[in-house]
Amino acid sequence: MSAPESLAEVRARIDAVDAELIRFLAQRQSLVRSAAAFKTDEHAVRAPDRVAQVVALARERATAAGLAPAVAESVWRAMIDAFIELELTEQAALRQR
Length: 97
Fold this sequence. Notes:
single chain; mainly alpha; 4 helices; elongated
């Protein structure tokens, strides 16, 4: 990929990357909703050991890809927190059925 030649081009490329991220997050959301059906309580949803595993893997992959591991960890923790809240909502809805 060639270097951007203007701020407008940088922004356009960022917008394109963001669009892809949204598509991937939508896929992740679908899987999180599916996972809610397999979990029995809030502890299973919060799954601190799994969170630690996912964050560690994100840091490793970030390093390999040239992304600052601290940035990856921050983004992943925010994403995980948001999806945990979604999953708790999904799980509550499933219990009401």
